[in-house]
Amino acid sequence: MTMTVQQPRRPLLEVKGVKKYFPVKSPLGATLQQVRAVNDISFNMYEGETFGVVGESGCGKSTMGRTILRLTEPTEGQAIFQNKDLFGLSEREMKPMRQQLQMVFQDPYSSLNPRKRIGATLEEPMIIHRMGNKRERTDKVMEILQKVGMNADQYYRYPHEFSGGQRQRIGLARALVMNPKLIICDEPVSALDVSIQSQIINLMQQLQRELKLTFLFIAHDISVVRHISDRIGVMYLGQMVEQAPTDKLIRTPLHPYTQALLSAVPATKPNEVRERVILKGDLPSPLNPPAGCIFHTRCPYVMDRCKTEAPLNKEVTEGHFVSCHLH
Fold it and tell me: Could you tell me the sign of the dihedral formed by the alpha carbons of 315, 320, 323, 325, in that order?
């Protein structure tokens, strides 16, 4: 009797040791310091899943997403997509890869050209990549507009004629016209009303099932991230301090920072009592991060070794990684 050995899933995207530092220069041009916006981040993403990244404002989430797509050039590391290191490609080699990698931005209005009709904006990526003729491009845009819940006649309107929720649907449509494999969503619902947020998230989940999309979903609201994500990574001061499947992270958060984020989510069940974790102090500056564990200046469980020794990123249980001396 022969036994079938199950092969491990191959990641669609492997992010390895990615760093992005921004130089702080003197008036004469000399580099004085470096802002460590993203500091040695690693994770994998698998086809068809949503990987959520959560953390407070200024922790480097958006910079990480833009760096992976090379909208800002990386300082160090690798982003391996379909067996190709994106960071090692020339601009010419990177161009066809951009058809597979798209982004939805936080502010839908500033990411749309106010002088262009929506139809022209959505057709522009296809013109750049020489996809189809005029008729085929128009038909494709009409089809995508209907997929995201818009009417075909809105093809001829300008961005200022739409509400915030409609503009975000247009931003999503612009990403979809290229038939991508991976879409990076940079806080796509943070500027919207709560009722509109749920509509956009439900739409994204529906499109993911229909089109077999993979999402990197960046947000600062962990209650939104837990609703849409299969796995979650928690970022603090440019580093990923915890990663786990969503259910496991919500049920048993290991890092004190994750515990604090979850304690801030309002209770949704009657008689549900949560212990509120209050973090003392302000977020340290990425210009001068603390020695040892980057979280020790605000951690309620700080030990002496935390102040001098940086914790390793360890797999505590299957698929649950944490950087903390408590584990």
Answer: negative
Adjacent-strand bridge partners of 202: none
Q: Which of 219, 215, 238, 233 is nearest to 75 (CA)?
A: 238
Distance of CA 167 to the CA centre of its chain: 19
Q: Are strands 231-236 and 239-245 parallel, antiparallel or unpaired?
A: antiparallel
* Tens of pLDDT, residue by residue, the chain (327 residues): 445 445 567 899 999 999 999 988 888 778 888 889 999 999 999 999 999 999 988 888 999 999 999 999 999 999 999 889 999 999 999 998 999 999 998 877 787 888 999 999 999 989 998 888 999 999 999 999 999 988 888 899 998 998 888 888 999 999 999 999 999 999 888 877 788 888 889 999 999 999 999 999 999 888 889 889 999 999 999 999 999 999 999 999 999 999 999 888 776 666 555 677 778 877 788 888 888 999 999 988 888 999 999 999 999 999 999 999 988
Chain position carrying tokens 């979903």: 217
> Domains along the chain?
13-100+180-266+274-323 (3.40.50.300), 101-179 (no CATH)
Residue 60 backbone class (left: φ over 0; alpha: ψ -120 to 50; beta: rest): left
Question: E strands of the chain, at which residues?
Answer: 13-25, 31-45, 50-54, 76-81, 84-85, 101-104, 182-186, 214-219, 231-236, 239-245, 313-317, 320-323
* 267 burial via Cβ count (<10 Å: 0-12, 13-18, 19+): exposed
DSSP result, 6-19:
PPPPPPSEEEEEEE
Structure tokens at 159: 């961005």
